[in-house]
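Hi P.,

Sorry for the delay on this. The queue was packed all week, but I finally got your sequence through. Input first:
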Amino acid sequence: MNARGTTTNARDDSVRLRGGAGRPWRRLRAGLRGWGGVGAMALVCALAVTFALLLPLSQPYDGDGGAVIGGQGVAHSSQVRAEDCKKPQDQSLSPSGGDGKTPTVDAIKARKDRRLIVGVDTNSYRWGYLDPNNPSGELEGFDIDLVHRIAQDILGDRDAVQFKAIPTSRRIEAIQKGEVDMVVRTMTINCDRIGQVAFSAPYFVTGQQVLAPKTSTITGYNKTLSDKKVCSAKGSTAYDNLEAGRKSGDLPASADIRTTVPNQLDCLVKLQLGEVDAVVTDGALAASQAAQDPAVELKGGLFTDEYYGVAMKLGSEDLVRQVNRTLENYIKDGGWEASYEKWLHPTMDQGDKKSASATPPAARYK
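Then the structure:
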């Protein structure tokens, strides 16, 4: 088992940035020199780690060291049915309430290897990523700060975390199979998902946006996407919105949305290689990608509202209430604001003009 706070795949292998990324990565780095220099090279280093990490995750753990298989056999009557859903970001459980029992949290505390097991991203700049210039090799970012705070509140140790790299396309599956206790990975709360996993109250608000080369004639989510290849992550709200836009006519019928990838950052690589014309992803992530590569930029404004939440297994109500209590305190004591200033202010705010995302969303419980 790795030391506390290290990143593992399901086989619990340590992965470090240093040492042996391999010759193919050198060739790719050379090919990206015109796409942002140092930023692109850092991106490729991060991708090298990510491809090593994104091996198939294991089956659910059991015993002292494993993820909680919480909620099995628990009635889901308290969960909002997707078809009855309105304002999914307001459907989480209040920090107070319940019957006072904490079976999921107790199971986490009772592990021999007393750590929280969390699915995260490792290649989203300033959200959850491995900085090749950081000699410690530790994960950094806005989402990672939140994970450390949750671990502190549950286990009394901010570093009592086992991070697992989870691709965008496997976030829900990893939770349902009990491979992780929770996923903290820029995951949007929506009506479909709240029928599959339990969400915390929202901790961030953004929206979908278009990313394209600065030289592109694309101006946003509009008719300029006609006959263009658009990339999105498989299982993401970006793809769902593209599909819906095709049906509603908001997106030109000739826009090619067939290109999907396991992780949204893979879209940036395809954009850099000229394999697609544009990327659609959350505006917060798009801003970070634009910061990595000065040859691309955000095109047009946000065209949806997206609320990020911590995702957990259905039935783990005590864990949901605990996370919501952490979020309330994290916002009240300035921890959220400090993390935003450190990680997101440089990419999302323009001088003295604050992004709408600079204010945490208000929690409203069902």
